[in-house]
Amino acid sequence: MSELFDKSIRTLELPAVLAMLADQTNSAEARERALATSPRTAVDEVERLQGETDAAREMIGLRGSPAFSGIKPVGESLYRADRGGTLNTRELLDIAGVLRCARRVKEYWNDDGGERTAVDSLFRSLRGNRFLEEKITTSILEEDVIADNASPELADIRRHKRNAASKGRQILQKIISSSSYSKVLQEAIITQRDGRFVVPVKAEFRSSLPGLVHDISSTGATLFVEPMGVVQANNEFIELQAKEQKEIDRILADAAAQEGLRIYNASAYRSYTTQKWVYQRYVNQEGAQEADTYSARPGCSEHQTGLALDINTASLSDHFEETEEYAWLVENSWRYGFILRFPEGKEEITGYQFEPWHYRYVGPAAARVCYENGWTLEEYHARQPAPDR
């Protein structure tokens, strides 16, 4: 453009006009495009654009303005997905928002075969996808929560899990509500230890409530007891929790597979006998002192809870930390409730060597906190308030 043209733009105060236009936009991308608008000189193009402006103004006068609120830029996400990249739940929800906006704007236009306008081609270019939109929004309730209907199996497991939890809590509720146990209980509450429902019992009344002791307060004044009457319900709850983890593990693997990655379970639940054999093998190879840095003694292994798994491998020599699968897990496993249990640089805290393959299910909420703060499970628990009774 010539110097005279630029001077004319400034004289007409076009930048101020474009700033007013930009203030009416609903996204950062639209704002940038509004501010970058420049005058056209070709007569045909000017007439076409003026026709579109007149048609849009008339349509707004008749129907009101179409809603573009909530729309987010997704071009970069789509570019990465098209090339096999991983999209997180926030990006997927943003894409669902764009699809919803496209659908509603097209419904606003509503091609009913009436009089043609100069902006019809703009509306026809919109492509919604109601199926994909609903698939995303029904599977991802929030940025870090996997919905029950992410799979029929998960929905069924969680339904039975809620029933089992309710059964156990009903039994415990009768205990804490009974006047017979008012002197026995430290407090009339139901809590959890090691994933099992328990009640806090005064140490001096231990024999008054038969059951399994799962924890003791630091002062020794309180025992956290699982009454015998609730053991079966708790067992059912734990079994369903393990099934839930297994199904989420499968969903996670499917999600990774859609990105062209292969994730599989190399080792999950182990019995006491199996863990004893595993640990003893390492002791025979390198001695107990070295084995204790990377293998749990029988009765102390997370694998015995059914909440831990080794993904793809269980050997440092495989260098799993150098793979795309490991990189994907580091960025995405927390969304499914898993954390890298023994991360690099945290050996003094966990007591174990770096294990890039070892993941522990702790639930979406706790996993998100650990991920955002770079915490191990030990660091997470250390920050949880616990009454000292």
Description:
This protein has 389 residues and is of the alpha+beta class. Among the domains are: 49-143, no CATH class; 153-235; 259-269 and 306-382, Muramoyl-pentapeptide Carboxypeptidase, domain 2. 49% of the residues lie in helices and 12% in strands. It is built from 16 helices and ten strands. The strands form three sheets. A four-stranded antiparallel beta sheet has the order 3-4-6-5. The protein has a four-stranded antiparallel beta sheet with strand order 7-8-10-9. Strand 5 and strand 6 form a beta hairpin. Helix 9 (152-177) runs antiparallel to helix 10 (231-257). The chain is elongated. The termini are far apart.
Short précis:
By secondary structure, this protein is of the alpha+beta class. 49% of the residues lie in helices and 12% in strands.
> Which residues sit in consecutive blocks of at least 5 with pLDDT less than 50?
none
Instruction: Please trace the helix and strand order, writing H or E for each element.
Output: HHHHHHHHEEHEEEEHEHHEHEHEHH
Give Rg in angstroms: 30 Å
Distance linking N and C termini: 80 Å
Give the rounded overall mean pLDDT.
82
Number of strands: 10
Proportion of beta-strand residues: 5-15%
Side by side, the strands of the main sheet go: 3-4-6-5
Profile the largest sheet. 4 strands, antiparallel
Q: Helix fraction?
A: 40-55%
Shape: elongated
Number of helices: 16
Secondary-structure-derived class = alpha+beta
* Oligomer description: single chain
